[in-house]
Amino acid sequence: MSVDTSISVDEIRKEFPVLHQQVNGKPLIYFDNAATSQTPECVTNALIHYYQNDNANIHRGIHTLAERATTAFEETRKAAQRFINAGEAEEIIFTKGTTEGINLVAQAYGRKFLKAGDEIIISGMEHHSNIVPWQLLCEQTGANLKVIPVQPSGEILLEDFDRLLTDKTKLVSVVYISNSLGTVNPVAEIIAKAHAAGAVTMVDGAQAAPHHQIDVQALDCDFLAFSGHKMYGPTGVGVLYGKRALLERMDPYQGGGEMIREVTFEKTTYNDIPYKFEAGTPNIADVVAFKAAIEFIEGIGFEFLHQQEMALLQRGKERLYSIDGFTPIGTAAHKTSVISFLIDGVHPFDLGMLLDARGIAVRTGHHCTQPLMDHFQIEGTVRASFAVYNTVEEIDTFAEALSEIVKKFRS
């Protein structure tokens, strides 16, 4: 597929009013996209349109507004199905984000099917949301948690995974792309090996969804979770994909309205998927607006996204790696547009505040990956993460600001 040459970064930036402001007297440079990306007007317009025209509860009312809201809500489900190439819309469950999706699988699948002595494998670069739910499950069931080690480059090796994989392995849950390092993991190979051992697979797709074309049927993953706010969409909405056969065998995650078929004081029967896992009134407005975010990405296309983000990553390496005392954390051969680093003698928090004073937003700290930071024997890093609306000129300004800050610390 060729890149659409009619698309330009300048035109894309026009869709994001938040980018056209000054912070601390300087033009905003937003490099915290791995935490939360900014939102284009098409998404905020969809949100406003819903509240001004269609606001009503869904799936229960027969009046016009309820029917319009229900239709819009379910259209987003179809858009999410298309976006990750799920086999059917019923395999798409709306959550409040990746974290809830992983917790849902841990509790609704794990508590039912795992037992004492079973093993769960994760990697050493996981976000806390793909560590803590499995620790809780191990406490509840007596299962054991095993961790694929991380190499100095910030990569995991399939040989290390092979050594951990046994007939006791019942579930493997790994991150597609590391939020701290930008490492792209070999998830297809991990999934295939896990299945060969009889294990179920979960993929944390939070960082992958805005950067990579995801095809769950090609990957053959059993579960995958991602979040709207990392892919130009609203906060508080996410997706859990699960294979129908597994979802139908799982118990509900929460009880309440919508997830029921019939309730008596003696017994409750449950609704069909996906509604069995969507108890209560959902985040209707943000789910409706999420469709616009999906269509925004599809309109740009992953070829252009990849080309733009790799150009930014390359420019960042060229300009930043030569700065005095600069140490990159995570140098995997396969990376997305994230540069995580330290400057010798300068605390990451100090760097973050000094950059913010110049209008440059980066993330500092452990990035919800404390075990990974412990592995590298560091407290945290400065993380600059780039999106399709960022520019080479912003990279240059960032590099110049960082150089000036370092010189002042050295003087």
TrEMBL record:
Q: What is its EC number?
A: 2.8.1.7
Q: Which InterPro entries match?
A: Aminotrans_V_dom, Aminotrans_V_PyrdxlP_BS, Cys_dSase_SufS, Cysteine_dSase, PyrdxlP-dep_Trfase, PyrdxlP-dep_Trfase_major, PyrdxlP-dep_Trfase_small
Q: Where is the Aminotransferase class V domain?
A: 29-398
What's an example of a GO molecular-function annotation for this chain? Answer: transaminase activity
* Database matches in SUPFAM superfamilies: PLP-dependent transferases
Which catalytic reaction applies to this protein? (sulfur carrier)-H + L-cysteine = (sulfur carrier)-SH + L-alanine
Which cofactors, if any, are listed as required?
pyridoxal 5'-phosphate
Q: Which residues form a coiled coil?
A: none
Q: Write down a Pfam family by its short name.
A: Aminotran_5
Q: Which UniProt keywords apply?
A: Aminotransferase, Pyridoxal phosphate, Transferase
Which PROSITE patterns has this protein been placed in?
AA_TRANSFER_CLASS_5
Any idea what job this protein has? Catalyzes the removal of elemental sulfur and selenium atoms from L-cysteine, L-cystine, L-selenocysteine, and L-selenocystine to produce L-alanine.
**What PANTHER family does the record tag this protein with?**
CYSTEINE DESULFURASE, CYSTEINE DESULFURASE 1, CHLOROPLASTIC
Which family is this sequence assigned to? Belongs to the class-V pyridoxal-phosphate-dependent aminotransferase family. Csd subfamily.
Which named protein is this?
Cysteine desulfurase
